[in-house]
Here is the input.
Amino acid sequence: MDDRTKVSRRVFFRGAATIAGAALAAGVIPIRAAQAQQKLAKDIMKYQGTPKDGQKCDDCQYFQAPKSCSLVAGDISPQGWCTAYNKKKS
Ligand code: SF4
Here is the structure.
């Protein structure tokens, strides 16, 4: 790799970082949408539509009525369950 290639890469990455920062600052990249896409897939979390050993989504701190979860993607039944179950604090 010659010096010209090294400089070109440095300039490219510096430019890319500047563009990404400017896009975030300008709100071009919606942060909430990016976060929403970070939910986990049901199969990864071994989600099931029925309770397990008396544990169910309706009692989990991550459940968002009527049919969502802050961790797992898709429609979530209040009667469902997954491996991330964490009982609501009362
Ligand atoms: S048990 Fe799993 S799917 Fe159900 S609310 Fe809790 S984290 Fe979400």
